[in-house]
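Attaching the record inline, Q. Sequence:
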Amino acid sequence: MSAYLAVLATHVCCALLTPWLFTARVYRASRGRNPAVGVLRWLPHTVDTALFGAGVTLALLLHISPLVHAWLAIKLVALLVYILIGHIAVRRVHNNAGRWTAWFAAVVTIGYIYTVALT
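Structure, as predicted:
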């Protein structure tokens, strides 16, 4: 049970840290700066990889599958939507109105993922 709690704590911490790092990258991009400099070059990807790895580990420990549990499949689809919108916000949109609109859509998507996780 202690392994489960450690993985769960890692998953929750990464899930809470991810939107902050994403926001920092969008903010830098909105100021005309490179959004991936210093720790923002590698830390968001490291945290997101740990988040995904911890999620997969939790699913394995609990013996749940997205093919059987619809809520898990929905979280994975929402995760893909978040990644796509995040890419748009940081790399594809070149005006601040569009960038912050995409940021808002990504944050709403994260909120949806949190809601699914808590219910």
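The chain has a mean pLDDT of 95. The radius of gyration is 15 Å.

More tomorrow.
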